[in-house]
User: Fold this.
Amino acid sequence: MRITALAIAATLALAACGSDQSETPASADADGSESSIDTESGEANFTLDTPEGEATLRAGPDVEVDLIDGFTLVEGAEVVSNTVVDTAAGKGAILTFKSDKSPEEIAEHYRAQAQAAGIDIQIETAINGGKMLGGESASGTTFSITAYPADDATLGQLTIGSGV
Assistant:
């Protein structure tokens, strides 16, 4: 529940990133949570103390890609936005990217990585030139990739989490 609140806070903070503030807003709440937005880079950072330990969320186009072991960004892809969540129980990411590879090539890249990680592909669909795959491992790692054509490139969104 608190992680959900953290994600909602990140969404609201990112919506504020277009403001004309020249300083980095930051806050610390009575519950031990902290948040900040770097107005130059657009990066939002949130930290929350939970009974299980500290949870952090970083979001923005320049946040370093930090995927679960065994997963990598498609070679040559450009990050459009990246959200990384770290908790005592695990971590997750929502990574949006642009690539010159086809939706099929992107889907196959992530299918191979998912299967190597023990993820059972439970859904696969193709629609309007795009591809979507999703699944879960016996240990609870969840994964989905959506890739679709957009102008002269392919847009992809990878969502992956383990323990979050």
